[in-house]
Amino acid sequence: MAAGEEVKLLGGWFSPFSHRVELALKLKGIPHQVLQEDLSNKSPLLLKNNPVYEKIPVLIHNQKPISESFVILEYIDETWKRNPLLPQDPHDKALARFWASFIDDKLAEAVRRTITTQGEQQQQDVKKATEALEILEGELKIKGKRFFGGETLGIVDIMLGWISIWLGVIEEFAGVQVIDPENFPVIEKWKRDFLQVPAVKESLPQRDLLVGYFENFRRFKLASVPAPGN
């Protein structure tokens, strides 16, 4: 990084979206400062730098803010060229963007809903999440590589990284099973390989702290949802 550059990440240890950005910075070897946000009492710095959504993560590079994790990842990759996260070939790059969007739009969204739903609706969300994972399992099997990015982590792997720890935590406190290891051998191997990457080990939060955080989050969300007919 050039002398005088300043890189700050407004994030949260509990956030898989913040983890994406922190992991990308570590993989690129970019010196940075992580500022932990309390979302129940958002800092003036967060409100100033993301006034539209008022959420994390936000990357501040030389006092210029960028928000939304996927947008930030692309910015990082374009700004710091070493250890590229996206393929160089235009077609391969487009495919990587497609799968990155698929992970958020289909898988992460369905899993997110299991946190705040119950009964039949929750089971429908589990089914949608499992179907999305089946598609990713097939895609990684076709690639025949260690990661979606090849032999090293790429942007698709970073986008999917949350299933390595956050998914299991959500399954535990929500009382659901999205991924059966016997049915997803390729994804399970991917998870093991992902967790062995030094930058991943350095940036993951403690599992027991995540369990406590999301248990409280689910309890709050369910309490705030009106009962049917009210």
UniProtKB/TrEMBL annotation:
Pfam families: GST_C, GST_N. Keywords: Transferase. PROSITE patterns: GST_CTER, GST_NTER. GO terms for biological process: glutathione metabolic process. One of its GO terms (molecular function) is glutathione transferase activity. Its EC number is 2.5.1.18. InterPro entries: Glutathione-S-Trfase_C-like (IPR010987), Glutathione-S-Trfase_C_sf (IPR036282), Glutathione_S-Trfase (IPR040079), Glutathione_S-Trfase_N (IPR004045), GST_C (IPR004046), GST_C_Tau (IPR045074), Omega/Tau-like (IPR045073), Thioredoxin-like_sf (IPR036249). It catalyses: RX + glutathione = an S-substituted glutathione + a halide anion + H(+). GO terms for cellular component: cytoplasm. It comes from the Eukaryota. Belongs to the GST superfamily. This is glutathione transferase. It comes from Hevea brasiliensis (Para rubber tree).
